[in-house]
Design a protein that fits this description.
The complex is a heterodimer. By secondary structure, chain A is α/β, with parallel strands linked by helices. Chain A is about 20% helix and about 30% strand. In chain A, strand 5 and strand 6 form a beta hairpin. In chain B, helix 9 links the parallel strand 5 and strand 6. Classes of the chains: A alpha/beta, B alpha/beta.
Chain lengths: ~150, ~425
Amino acid sequence: MSGVQEFAASAAMGEKVRGLAVVASDGFSARYDLDRIAGIFSRPEHKLAGRSYVGLILVLDRPKGGVATAWMLHEMAARGVVPAALVFNTVNPIMVQGAALAGTTMMSGFAVDITKAVPDGALVELDPTATPPVLRLVPEASSPDVGPGA
Amino acid sequence: MLRLDDEAEAMRRGALGPARQWAIEHQLRVGAYLGAPDLVQVSQAHIMADTESLGAAGVAWLERFAAMPERERRVRVPTITDPRGTDFTAAKRLKQQDYMVALERRTVAAFEALGILMTDTCVNYQTIMPPIRGEHVAYGDTGVVIYCNSVLGARSNFEGGPSALAAALTGRTPRYGYHLDERRGGSLLIEVSMTPRRLHEWGALGGVVGRLAGDYWRVPVLTGLDRVPGSDELKHFGAAMASFGSVAMFHIEGVTPEADSLAGLFRGGAPAPVRVGAAEVGALLASYADAAGAADGVDVVVFSAPQLSLMEMQTLAGLLDGRRVTVPLLAVTSPQVKPDADRMGLSARIEAAGGTVLSGMCFYQSYARELGEANGWKRLVTNSAKLTNIIGGYGYRPMLLSMEACVDAACTGRLA
């Protein structure tokens, strides 16, 4: 996989996932920011307002307030209207708890601002099982699909 | 891998049933991610679980626990609930749909089977059993957590519904974050040049500080207030800070119990202060006026988030005496305050003016999008900064005003 850029994370959970990244230097809360029926960002002020999150790898700065995401990721996963994975510069406990319940792949804690390192729309591979966990930017013409986000 | 004592290890092996086994495994996953060395015993749990968040899948998931044998499913520490997604006595008036009420009833039945007390409140620190300084708890509402950490000196992280339930089942929670002395010091110094007078201003100040902190792991320290705030003031202040910034703890020099001195809060020396005053608070208030647009009509006035105290109910009743609302006015309180408000005639005075008193729910936790669509509510006026921060994503255009201005808007149907 020559030409692949890698970013090590300090913490991760879940399975290996590959998918397209939706990137913004903004926060995240399933309650505050999403229309979970339509599967889009609904808060008008959010930098991803109007865009779909379904089956995509969200790369965002940090979680917002509120505890609802701890349940909502599970509910969204049950209906299949859920991101493929979550990537943050920093997390709060709610996002960790929600990902743990829903079985969502999540990764956080990078040496760089990950929202600036990953281009919006890039093909990304997350490997939470690696030591340390790693996010890879994959050239579009690279290897076959892996994981649920493919 | 977290260290487990013998009993917790037995839970992990499944010797105490599948519910406690799930709970320990959940705590191990969360604790490992967040660097917890072990689990800490907790004395209470508080679970947020409105059914808009749970969905049908979450309710069915809870019901699996409720169907287990009693000795395997009962919680091990006193466990209470955050607001529900409806006031069952008012669901029809609110135009909530039957499926919402049915999900809520199923959730109540499941929680009761687990031995959970259906307190349905986000102000348990004012009404149920406030925790003591140093007491480790597992609370599941950000407003509850920040108040209890900061004002009471208790110790909790944000425990979302699944994790609060896990703590209830095991009597433990992962020891990280605000359970640890080293996490409770200050990390941001705020020098305040205006002391709010009204609740919405306290919320706005909390919102400004929350945005400045912007991170669960940062602890703002405030100096410069010219008086000791009251419980309702710090309720709005903390709830807004937690909402705008995901902040779980703050200190106020000379006021909150762990803030005797700046030197004690900043072990490496206090950082340069960030100054916050009337301009910053005014800018936050104005941002909602700008976002709400030029039209001055009002669709609904909401007092909620957090639930109103008895004193807030009294103030609201006084403002409504002799007046009549022309747009819906919802006053949401707790099931603990409501009977007192009824007994003392406060509910009757609010309803005599055409207002609606609700209890045991919270506006944004009650299918707010569907409520808005069913009732034609878009332009929402409130004195809760927390609610203004949340409700935009549900399709509303909120305005943050004083309780007095909210009542005026409810009576005239317009903004002054």
